[in-house]
Specification:
The complex is a heterotrimer.
Chain A (H helix, E strand, L loop, with lengths): L1 E5 L4 H14 L3 E7 L8 E9 L14 E4 L2 H7 L9 E5 L25 H7 L2 E5 L1 H8 L5 H10 L6 H11 L5 H20 L2 H6 L9 E8 L2 E8 L8 H5 L5 E3 L5 E3 L10 H5 L5 E4 L2 H7 L1
Chain B lengths: L1 H6 L22 H15 L7 E5 L3 H5 L6 E4 L5 H11 L4 E7 H7 L1 H10 L4 E6 L2 E2 L5 E2 L23 H8 L3 E6 L3 H13 L4 E6 L3 H7 L5 H10 L1 E3 L16 E8 L6 H15 L1
Parallel strand pairs in B: 1-2, 1-3, 3-4, 4-8, 7-8, 9-10
Antiparallel strand pairs in B: 5-6, 7-10
Helix pairs in contact in B: 2-8, 5-6, 6-7
Chain C lengths: L2 H4 L3 E5 H11 L2 E6 L6 H10 L6 E4 L3 H14 L2 E6 L1 H17 L3 E9 L5 E5 L4 H6 L9 E2 L4 H18 L2 E7 H5 L1 E5 L44 E3 L13 H17 L1 H4 L2 E4 L6 E4 L3 H15 L4 E6 L1 E3 L3 H7 L5 E6 L5 H9 L4 E5 L8 H11 L1
Parallel strand pairs in C: 2-3, 2-4, 4-5, 5-8, 7-8, 12-13, 12-15, 15-16
Antiparallel strand pairs in C: 1-9, 5-6, 7-14, 11-13
Helix pairs in contact in C: 2-3, 2-7, 4-5, 11-14
Classes of the chains: A alpha/beta, B alpha/beta, C alpha/beta.
Chain lengths: 295, 281, 381
């Protein structure tokens, strides 16, 4: 089994759960991982092998029985490791845009993010599951439980008792989040069973992520003063500083968790959002001439 | 310099290698705010990008330099001041600015800091202090506050905290200042003062590491962190009214903490002594 | 020509001082160092000579900082040097690796003393041959020169600067305490007679400029700060743009070029001296001080009718293998004489085969005498 994602998603936690539960069932287990660029755009992966006797710690291309991906682009990066025709593919459909995916100097340029859609992939794989686990987990109360939801899906493919799964998950997730993670796990199981009964169930639930415009410009007029905010959504990392620090409360995070000026009429052009944006993604224009120059 | 102010309004994009953006820093990382403040000061001083040399070390702070559209040198862990010393002596015409972190500057590179301060070569050292080794996953640093949890202080930090500004001042730095990121224009002015100062300038920027350090210690969102940093500071005007304590309890002074214009700048003094010797003959 | 005129440029010079004078003559305009026996005289002389030519001398706070400052000055455009000995050489290793990866020219003098650790600071040794080769971590090249006389310290220091500039790499000059402190009469070459090389400076168009794109010679021209290139220099594995990469193909291309650029220029890097090797039955391999004893041994052996020859590598790394094979053609036995527990010996055994090679090693802080070599020859014959 190969577990992949980007830093901070819980790849390591998921592999620990898997390794432990396999060991509980009396298997020999080997786990090897690469991490260390957490949250800085780097991928994290972990190989878990189990069986009566395991020699090699890593899995060659085309040798994985299960690919569990917490992020779509990472799923695409690793899909060639899946055993052709037989391997089980489970992936979250959420996109986490790595910094290097948007390197073009041009505004509105296409990001270099993977172009394969879940539909295209599921058509090619016999045993594939693509679910918007992050959104579902958020609906349950905590999007960070997306990883245990995917484990719930995986649990239906492995012949281990559900109680053992819940037991191991409870041991490895932070104590405060045991309930939500168990809920997410059960939700994942139920979802997978619905898909087994009706394969279209998954397809119905797949929402294509909307493509956000690369640049949002909002202008407001205040006593004749010109104010325009440029927010470079490709650079915005959703830290929320601008939203919380705006004295007029005129910014918010949109569905894609990108900053937007949702009440332009309240904006005074005080520049606090510009100064405090750690991603240098906000530019406040007070002079119409400069707007033209930078456009 | 005053003319430059009127030239053009500051546009941070002009000073960035935009093809490398967005930068690699985590969401809410204060280093990004410090980067803006630095570039803003560079702009107001009218420093040409071609003559700007950014020397940085290893760590999150060290990699921040690469996003600046200038001559950038990403050197070794703890040693950017050593590289910068060679570079500035070789090329007095360059404006040399060092970007370093608390671990880079105070732990592995502590020796270079005290000697750079003593020597008084015209370098500006910007230390981004986020109290933690972020790049390696959140280990304790010389500035980690007491009792804080890190990946190597699972029981809470029991080591005393470096007051980097006092260290620099004690070692002879002729310009010393500290500022939080939330007061960006004030931070910009402080950095501007440091760069304009003819001698070694040490500036500590209180930065936040929300993703690793903040999360581990329940310090809240980035906005909450930068606000609490501000409330933990006291402006220099109140400096003398508060009893001095050797290590950071909860109130560090901000602003320009030392400014000595009388000590000669090392490079100029060295060149002058050579000239004096030559004319003697 | 009168006697005085002929002697005008002849001076009694100590090895360490010859090194400093050669550096100045080679165009070195920056020195950063830290005092350490037995190399300190290099620093002392540089502190005196550099101001005369408008250069900069600085004594740094430690060995690591010295090498950092040297690289910083070189990045700024000056020819730069430092000198040290064993323990300091160990401390400089990370920065030597940085210089190799970032392709920053620099010259590192290591006047070898007994080790490990503090060892015997005032006694000679050749114990750093392998540290010079493999001291910094990771796969890398090393250009290491080993002069055997004061005159050669001079010429090899000049050559070190030329190689550093031409190949954009740190170059290490290794000599032992005896040579460092040896005073010999040498003829100082007229400055204009020296052939000096300066690194290629970037003059490509600034638009789309790639600082690490190399031509046929595999050596990219160096961008000078202030010339408008505003490039990035890093110790991270990088691609032609100078920015970090983890792309396996680009990572391999970078390291392969670094290794191959030295291989490509073996004609200028390699240097070795041969004595009576054409018909030698027995060949002594020695460098530095032991080579001086070996020369005497060869003379005496030949007088006794023993066909002894000497192979003296002047470039230690990369080892001048081709010249050695030619010199060792007729030799049935090869004796490696060095002041360590067997370091270059490993390389000779690798090339010539263990059965042909016998070691003559001393690591007691004493040099190897001609008689010892003759004894070894007697046993081998």
């Amino acid at each position: 089994m190969i577990i992949v994602g980007v830093g901070g998603q819980g790849v390591i936690m998921v592999s620990k759960v898997l390794a432990t539960i396999c060991q509980m069932q009396g298997h020999q287990v080997k786990q090897s991982e690469v991490h260390g660029m957490a949250k800085r755009g780097g991928g994290v992966f972990s190989h878990v092998r189990f069986g009566e006797k395991v020699w090699s710690p890593t899995i060659p291309k085309g040798g994985a029985d299960v690919l569990l991906a917490l992020e779509w682009a990472e799923a695409m990066r690793w899909i060639n490791h899946l055993r052709p025709g037989k391997g089980i593919f489970i992936s979250d459909t959420q996109h986490i845009m790595p910094p290097f995916a948007c390197r073009s100097r041009q505004r509105n340029a296409d990001a270099a993010y993977t172009r394969e859609t879940p539909h295209e992939i599921l058509e090619q794989i016999q045993d594939g599951y693509a679910m918007d686990a992050t959104t579902m987990a958020r609906d349950l109360g905590n999007e960070r439980a997306a990883n245990t939801m995917l484990l719930g899906v995986l649990s239906t493919a492995l012949d281990f008792p559900a109680e053992d799964w819940r037991d191991v998950i409870s041991r490895f997730v932070p104590p405060k989040t045991v309930d939500i993670n168990i809920k997410a796990f059960d939700h994942g199981r139920e979802w997978a069973e619905l898909v087994h009964e009706n394969p279209d169930h998954a397809a119905e639930q797949l929402r294509r992520p909307e493509i956000a415009p690369a640049l949002l410009s909002e202008a407001g007029e205040h006593d004749g003063d010109f104010v325009q905010l440029d927010i470079n959504v490709d650079w915005c990392k959703s830290c929320d500083i601008c939203v919380k620090m705006c004295p007029e409360r005129c910014l918010k995070l949109d569905d894609q968790l990108k900053a937007v000026l949702h009440k332009p009429e309240l904006c005074t052009g005080c520049r606090i959002c510009e100064w405090l944006c750690p991603d240098l993604a906000i530019t406040v224009h007070r002079d119409p001439a400069n707007v033209k120059a930078s456009a | 310099m005053t003319d430059a102010k009127q030239q053009t309004p500051f546009d941070v994009l002009q000073y960035l290698r935009q093809e490398l953006m967005p930068h690699f820093l985590c969401p809410g990382c204060g280093h990004g705010i410090a980067l803006r403040a630095l570039l803003w000061a560079v702009h107001e001083l009218g420093i040409e990008k071609d003559n700007l040399a950014i020397v940085s070390g290893i760590g999150c702070a060290g990699r921040t330099g690469a996003y600046i559209d200038a001559n950038t040198f990403h050197t070794t862990h703890g040693r950017p001041l050593a590289f910068a010393t060679g570079l500035k002596l070789a090329r007095p015409d360059l404006e040399v600015i060092v970007i370093t972190g608390d671990g880079d500057c105070l732990a592995i590179g502590g020796n270079h800091l005290i000697h750079a301060a003593r020597r008084n070569l015209d370098i500006t050292c910007l230390m981004l202090n986020n109290e933690v080794y972020g790049m390696t996953g959140g280990q304790v640093s010389p500035t980690t506050s007491e009792d804080r949890y890190t990946t190597t202080t699972p029981l809470g930090n029991t080591e005393a905290v470096f007051d980097a500004c006092k260290l620099a001042e004690g070692a002879g730095a002729t310009f010393v200042g500290r500022e939080v990121t939330v007061q960006t224009p004030t931070l910009k002015n402080l950095i501007l003062g440091g760069i304009a100062h003819d001698g070694f300038a040490f500036i500590e920027v209180i930065s936040d590491c929300t993703e690793i350090y903040g999360r581990k210690n329940d310090l809240g969102s980035s906005a909450e962190m930068i606000l609490s940093q501000k409330s933990a500071m006291r402006p220099e005007t109140f400096e003398n009214n508060i009893i001095d304590r050797p290590f950071r309890p909860n109130a560090l002074p901000t602003g320009v903490l030392a400014h000595d214009k009388t000590r000669p700048e090392y490079g100029a003094a060295y060149r002058a002594s050579i000239k004096a010797q030559q004319t003697k003959k | 020509m009168s006697k005085t005129e002929a002697n005008a440029n002849r001076h009694n010079v100590q090895g360490n001082h010859a090194c400093a004078l050669a550096a100045i003559a080679a165009g070195c305009r920056f020195y950063a160092g830290y005092p350490i026996t037995p190399s300190s005289e290099v620093a002392e002389r540089m502190s005196l000579e550099l101001p005369k030519v408008g250069g900069v001398f600085i004594q740094m706070e430690d060995e690591i900082a010295s090498m950092g400052a040297v690289l910083g000055a070189s990045m700024g455009g000056l020819k730069a040097m430092t000198a040290t000995s064993g323990p300091g050489f160990s401390l400089k290793q990370e920065h030597i690796g940085y210089g190799i990866l970032a392709e920053t020219p620099s010259v590192v003098i290591n006047v070898m003393r007994g080790g490990p650790s503090t060892g015997m600071p005032t006694r000679p040794s050749q114990g750093d041959v392998m540290q010079a080769r493999w001291g910094t971590h990771g796969d890398h090249t090393a250009i290491v020169l080993a002069p055997a006389s004061v005159a050669e310290v001079y010429t090899e220091t000049v050559r070190a600067f030329n190689l550093a500039e031409q190949l954009r790499s740190p170059v290490i000059v290794l000599f032992d305490e005896i040579i460092g402190h040896l005073v010999e009469t040498i003829q100082l070459p007229a400055p204009e007679s020296l052939q000096l090389i300066e690194r290629k400076w970037a003059d490509a168009p600034k638009e789309g400029y790639l600082p690490y794109a190399a031509g046929d010679d595999m050596i990219p021209p160096m961008p000078r700060p202030g010339d408008g290139y505003r490039s990035h220099t890093t110790g991270l594995t990088h691609d032609e743009s100078g920015f970090p990469t983890q792309d396996p193909a680009k990572a391999e291309a970078m390291l392969a070029r670094l290794i191959n650029k030295v291989e490509r220029h073996r004609d200028v890097v390699d240097a070795a001296d041969m004595m009576a090797t054409e018909d030698a039955d027995i060949l002594v391999v020695a460098y530095g001080t032991p080579a001086r004893a070996a020369r005497r041994a060869v003379k005496e052996a030949r007088e006794q009718g023993i066909k002894l020859g000497l192979f003296r590598p002047i470039t230690l790394w990369p080892f001048p293998e081709r010249a050695f094979l030619a010199a060792a053609k007729s030799a049935k036995r090869i004796i490696v004489a060095e002041m360590n527990a067997g370091q270059l010996l490993l390389e000779i055994e690798r090339i010539a085969g263990r059965e042909r090679v016998s070691p003559l090693l001393r690591f007691d802080g004493e040099h190897i005498a001609p008689d010892e070599i003759l004894d070894a020859v007697g046993k081998a014959a």
